[in-house]
Amino acid sequence: MKFTVDQIAGLIQGTVDGNGADIISDFSKIEEGKSGSISFLANPKYEAFLYDSKATAIIISQDQTLKKKPLATLIRVADPYLSFTILLQKYQEMMASNETGIQQPSFIDPSAILGENIYVGTFTSINRNAKIGSGTRIMNNVSIGVNVKIGENCMIYPGVILYPDTVIGNHCTIHANAVIGSDGFGFAPQPDGTFTTIPQLGNVIIEDHVSIGANTTIDRATMGSTKIGKGSKIDNLVQIAHNVEVGQNTAIAAQVGVSGSTKIGDHCLIGGQVGVAGHISIAPNTIVTAQSGVTKTVKNPGQTLGGTPASPNVDYLKRNALIRQLPDLFEKINQTIKVE
């Protein structure tokens, strides 16, 4: 598809500085700009590329001060990153296939209820009493269990497995090979050293506008529900254990593990490879930096935590700075002992 710079500026409410009639047909990173592409500048460390980029147009901040005239036509906006995101979303919507219908071979139980304008890919199985909302797209090789409910305008990518009784809200995206509703890790140790399996009788509830990454697993509750709040985003390779509750608009990066019955508040940001202990709570607006371990309840909202066990990030950084000095301090002590 081809658009003029003026058309794109109108879409993102920007102001054109240059030739609004230039034609845009592609996207590019600013350092890899090429003729016919559009890019953006949001991070100041990439400013050097602004002036020599071969992109036809670049989206920049309306407050950006230029050191010299760029080669590209500029579109000035309030928030370049957000504007570029909106542009990508609009392009994705235009490029998305509008194909509907049931592809064969696939299995749909006669008791399942399917909304209007849905798509079901090949080798997908939809079991009894499942309910699929209008406009939802289910790709190939998806397994939808008994009594599963999926809302409207969802996107379910190949290989997803939805265990029985799972509930998915509206406008959700579940990426390839995610497993939703598998048994929680419930085993009772016995006097003879063996384990007895604790039946996992609950389900998983995912609210509206949630995104679940590829190969992520979310376990069903022992009783009640494991819950993912409205608007939350979960990256690839994340493990959410049984009876966990994730608040609204919380983002969890890749390789995070959240242990059972933990509650994470609204608007939290959890960095990659964070481990969270079970049966604790994390207050709203908490940021946990990558590779940290949260071992106890976080009561005060709005903190940034780091390290293991996680503590206020300023304290964690101070400890790290001191630890890096230990070899020098050790050497000084040895030298002092030798002199004496």
TrEMBL record:
Query: Which UniProt keywords are given for this protein, alphabetically ordered?
Result: Acyltransferase, Lipid A biosynthesis, Lipid biosynthesis, Lipid metabolism, Repeat, Transferase
A single GO molecular-function term is: N-acyltransferase activity
Q: What is the E.C. number? A: 2.3.1.191
A GO cellular component annotation here is: membrane
Name the active site residues: 242
| Pathways involved | Bacterial outer membrane biogenesis; LPS lipid A biosynthesis
| Domain UDP-3-O-[3-hydroxymyristoyl] glucosamine N-acyltransferase non-repeat region: from-to ranges | 24-89
**The keyword Ligase is assigned to this record:** no
Determine if RNA-binding is one of this entry's keywords: no
Q: Which PANTHER family match?
A: UDP-3-O-ACYLGLUCOSAMINE N-ACYLTRANSFERASE, UDP-3-O-ACYLGLUCOSAMINE N-ACYLTRANSFERASE 1, MITOCHONDRIAL-RELATED
Under the subunit heading, UniProt states: Homotrimer.
Q: Which NCBIfam families match?
A: lipid_A_lpxD, PRK00892.1
Q: Into which family does the record put it?
A: Belongs to the transferase hexapeptide repeat family. LpxD subfamily.
Q: What does this protein do?
A: Catalyzes the N-acylation of UDP-3-O-acylglucosamine using 3-hydroxyacyl-ACP as the acyl donor. Is involved in the biosynthesis of lipid A, a phosphorylated glycolipid that anchors the lipopolysaccharide to the outer membrane of the cell.
Q: What is this protein called?
A: UDP-3-O-acylglucosamine N-acyltransferase
